[in-house]
Each structure stands twice: as C-alpha cells, then as structure tokens.
C-alpha cells in the first residue's frame, strides 16, 4: 500500500526555492493544529499515557495505568541539562484538569494536582517477601570493612533464627508431597466421594424423598443382576388392540399394521413363545388353522368371542 500513498506535494506557481520550505512559505507548522499554541504559549499537544493508577479529584473515579489522553506538554524548568516537562489534560469522565510533572532527579513522575495516586507500595516485612539492601548499604559494605563484618554477623543471626521455621516447612513438604502417586490417589478418592454425594442429592431431589439415601453395596448390585425378567407373551400384547380407530383407515395403512404384527409374532416365536401357525402373507388377516392360540373353554354367555390372536390381528364378526 505504500506505493499508493500520495507522496508528492503541491507547489503553488508563486513558490520558488529561495522562499524556503512549503511550511515556511505557508506560515504553518509540520504538526498542524497540534502545534497551534507552540509559538504563543510553548504548548504542544501530544498523546500521553497514565504512568500509574490514580483517582480523579473531580469525580473520584479510578483511572487505570495505561489510559491515554491528549495532553498539553510544556517545559517548566531544567534539572541541570534535562528539561522538566509538565503534562496537563482533562479527565475523560468529568471536566477536571490533571497535571503531572517529570522528576529527572528521582527518575519518576509527580502528581501536581487534579487527583491522588493509588498507594501500591508495601513494606517487605509486612508483605513477607525478601528484603534487599539499598544502594547506600551496599556501597558501605563494599568500602567499610567493620560495617561489612557487623552486617555479615547480623545476617548469620537472622538465618539461625529462621532455620527452625524453614526446617519445619521442609518436613511438612516431605511428609505430604513426597509420594506423588499417594497424593494423587487421595485427591481422586475425595473427588469420587463428592461426586457420589452430588449424585445422591440430585436423585433425592428428583423423586422428592425426605429420607437420606444409603450408599449402594455389593449385595444390592448382585440382587439387581439376579432379578428375573420374563419375556412378553401373546396375552400381554392383547392390550395393543383395545379400541378401534375413530377415522377409517386406508387399505395401505391396514396392510402395514398387519405386517408389523406379523413381524412381532415372528420375533416371539424365535424367543420360544408358543404361537399359532401362520399362513402366507396376504391382504386379509390370517386365521387360525389347527388350534386356538390360548386353549380355553368357550365363555358361557358369549359364543364366537375372538381369541387373543384374533384380537391382535383386528378380527371382527363383520369380516
């Protein structure tokens, strides 16, 4: 895309090289409107990034580190040959002005007005972290032999005082984490216990039991596996045909239902259930040939009552 950018500049007809650059000829700055106050007030508009976390004094809201602003940069002094810069910008959440100034002596930024810094400095003793010697102490240890001897003796006393604590920590670590497999096994056992407890609680909530459920045992598993389950019989299938359809069915739907019933009866024969003999498949339902499906005596108050097989096949006195 670089070759598509407009790199040429427009030179008006009344310009010649003796008049200087185009910016000088037009009486403008290369930074355009960002430098509109540079000659009068010495202010240049730059993009400034917040160096630390702070709170605005106008609205009291938090301003995070790294938030960027269009700030007015101005030179307010010198520290030897280094310039001291002042940055002034407006809070993006309110109309409050914030001023930050550089500190070349300490190598940091100072908040002049418009807010307060968030305190994030802690004492090493309170934070329980290692405390390093300052630059002055290191220089004194290097140059003063007596101070170095006293400092070394003080370090030895502190190490002796903390030795017992470090030994206890090492013993605790060795006792609990020496065997990785045992620690992992204990962790997985606790996880399974919590998982089973959650499962029992969900089951109890589903069936609305008020009494606690006992854990399953091996005897319960053996009893569940040994429970007999009888295969379905022809008598149990008579409930499939309890009522005739309300709307008349077509010949195709009746023939399809007849095929499904025959397939069910064939599967029952393969399982060992005694059924009647079948005729070859045809459009009308088959009839019994040799003997009834369920050999029972005729009912006293109704002759011609269909058997279970006839009821399953859709038999009626009208057909």
Q: So what's the overall shape?
A: flat
Tell me the β content.
15-25%
Average the pLDDT over all residues and give the rounded result: 75
Give the distance, in angstroms, between the N- and C-terminal Cα atoms.
89 Å
Unreliable stretches: 275-302, 305-309, 311-319
**Helical proportion, percent range:** 25-40%
User: What is the total tally of β strands?
Assistant: 8
N-to-C series of helices and strands = HEEEEEEEEHHHHHHH
Rg calc: 48 Å
Strand order of the largest sheet: 1-4-5-6-7
Q: What class, by secondary structure content?
A: alpha+beta
Tell me the number of helical segments per DSSP (H or I, 4 or more residues long): 8
- What composes the largest sheet? 5 strands, antiparallel
Description:
The protein has 8 helices and 8 strands. With 319 residues, it is of the alpha+beta class. The strands form 2 sheets. Strands 1-4-5-6-7 form a 5-stranded antiparallel sheet, with no helix packed on it. The chain has a 3-stranded antiparallel sheet with strand order 3-2-8, with no helix packed on it. A hairpin with a 5-residue loop joins strand 2 and strand 3. Helix 3 packs across helix 4. The chain starts with 21 loop residues before the first helix and ends in a 6-residue tail after the last helix.
């Amino acid at each position: 895309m670089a070759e598509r950018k407009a790199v040429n500049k427009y030179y008006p007809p009344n310009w010649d090289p003796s008049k200087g650059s185009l910016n000088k000829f037009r009486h403008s700055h290369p930074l355009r409107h960002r430098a509109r106050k540079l000659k009068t007030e010495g202010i240049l508009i730059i993009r400034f990034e917040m160096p630390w976390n702070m709170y605005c004094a106008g609205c009291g809201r938090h301003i995070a580190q790294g938030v960027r602003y269009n700030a007015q940069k101005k030179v307010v002094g010198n520290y030897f040959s280094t310039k001291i810069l002042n940055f002034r910008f407006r809070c993006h959440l309110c109309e409050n002005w914030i001023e930050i100034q550089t500190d070349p002596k300490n190598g940091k930024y100072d908040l002049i007005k418009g807010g307060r810094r968030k305190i994030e400095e802690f004492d090493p003793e309170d934070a329980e972290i290692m405390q390093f010697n300052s630059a002055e102490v290191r220089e004194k240890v290097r140059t003063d032999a007596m101070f170095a001897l006293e400092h070394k003796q003080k370090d030895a006393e502190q190490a002796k005082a903390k030795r017992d604590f470090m030994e206890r920590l090492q013993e605790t670590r060795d006792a609990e984490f020496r065997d990785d497999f045992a620690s992992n096994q204990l962790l997985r056992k606790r996880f399974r216990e919590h998982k089973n407890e959650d499962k029992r609680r969900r089951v109890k909530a589903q069936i609305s039991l008020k009494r606690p459920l006992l854990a399953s045992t091996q005897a319960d598993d053996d009893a569940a596996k040994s429970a007999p389950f009888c295969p379905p019989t022809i008598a149990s299938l008579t409930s499939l045909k309890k009522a005739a359809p309300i709307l008349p069915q077509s010949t195709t739907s009746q023939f399809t239902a007849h095929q499904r019933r025959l397939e069910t009866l064939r599967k029952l024969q393969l399982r060992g259930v005694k059924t009647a003999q079948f005729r070859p498949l045809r459009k009308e339902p088959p009839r019994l040939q040799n003997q009834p499906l369920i050999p029972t005596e005729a009912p006293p108050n109704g002759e011609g009552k269909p058997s279970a097989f006839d009821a399953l096949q859709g038999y009626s006195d009208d057909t």
